[in-house]
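REVIEWER CHECKLIST
Item 1: Sequence provided? yes
Item 2: Single chain? yes
Item 3: Sequence as submitted:
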Amino acid sequence: MSAAKRLATLGCVGLLATTSACASSSSSASGANASKTSITLGTVETYSSLDPAGAYDTGSWLLFYNIYQRLMSYAPGATIPTPDAASACAFADSGDTTYTCTLRPGLTFSNGDPLNANAVKFSFDRVVELGKLKRDNGSGVSVLLSTLASVTTSGDLGITFHLNTSDATFPDRLASGVGSIVDPKTFSATQLLQGNDPVCSGVYKVDSVQLGTPVDGKPNPQSVTMSLNANYKGQALSATSKAMNSSVTMKYYTDSSGVMNALNDGDIDLNASSDLSAADLVRLQAAQVLGKGLQVDTGAGTQTRMIILNVKNGPFSSQPVRRAVAELIDRDAIADNVYQRTVVPLYSVIPEGIGDATTPFQDLYGEGPTASTASQVKNDLVRAGVHLPVSFPYYYAQSSPGSDAEAAAIKQQLEVDGIFKVTLKPVGNLTDLIGQWGTGKVEASVSGWSADYPDPDDYVSPFLGAPGTFGSYYTNSEITNVLTPETLKQNDRGSAEAQITFGKIQTDLAKDAAYIPLWQDKQFIVTQGDITGVPLTLDTAEIMRFWMVGKS
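Item 4: Structure as written out by the authors:
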């Protein structure tokens, strides 16, 4: 997602009451052998739009992965995308600037309209055009197609993407929310979807949307009801892989306590993302009885959290001062005492589980401070001519669970032996924090990061883009102009060459210490005792595949 959008769910949705949508046959081809089971999920991640050209947030993409088909998708457990609406896709040239796909024959949308090469071209051209016209709901989602020069077709099944530069991540972009294929007969080429009734192409079709009283002038989604799309043909479902339910309802809540109460009351079968507090998760795990009552399923996560230091203004323009922060941070203490081990200490900007991740912060600064670390750091700073204590304000969004306790812990760790003097500056939410970054005066802050796709590049390139995007102003010409372009020519992401290049990038970032990783998340889904299939959806792609969830 755009830099800001990947830190928070922002945006608005079109104002409409309950609507019917996605007309299709009442029989379910994709669900002919599916269980006649209804699943109800709950989350705090509301959607901003049901139009892929107008949404760039977690809540919207959660729906998109289930109601829209893409040329490529991630099979459970995979970090490399494989064909979905396509029967085959590949780079057609050694420079990785031409990418071709062949569609599966006979695809249709939920209303019976043909899903052909023209529909694919229309979908991508539309995202780019609405972005240029600034009619994208303020989402900025077209940035994901910045390397796309044009799309051409060959007959009903052939599509060729012409890129303006080498981009080994292009298959991942096709598998992301921006790659959602829409019906050119029902979506406008120059306007966003008006209403909440999209014709769908994915495993599910939208049946109805319920909206509540607008909040701050913006519509307030309460629920989305979906049923299996009879016309879906793709990777997710086949003769040997049936849907485990026939319909899904997504309910929205204002906070984690609302989700927890709904689970306790049996109003929902499971939460749809990591919505619950660490205290609730630890309590539930301790009280869990297999097959009885609420169950907790856990999987590896790839969302990260890091300290961001302003290298342009303030004390962190000095590299020794930034490195001092990196040496004094005790990630284990934060994971233990603040988050009760619901997160994992992180020693690189690229999280564990994503290809080519290393541990340069551990290699350079150790696992955490020892008894002698403070005196050593203090002596190093004095020798560098740094006046102690180093005073600075530390900004953080209180809306992030555990943020107050985390900030207090970091303040205590950095103020050891009088090295730093930290003034905590809480702001209400991430929108407020982003606004503070825009002033250029935030010397230090902390925020999370959620990638668009499970590729190491998406944990590096965004932080070296427009200076000041995250309030850091950090640049590195070798990474930006040499190493990153090199990685984008390496379409074999598991090759030794790619590992070497990404290894150097991570080490260089750790040496400069403008972004100091703290932890990566774990995924936690809490379910009623009769819910099945959830562990199959908890992988590093972090995609909730609704069709895999059933009841015993």
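Item 5: Key structural point noted by reviewer: The CA atoms of residues 99 and 435 lie 38 Å apart.
Item 6: Recommendation: ____
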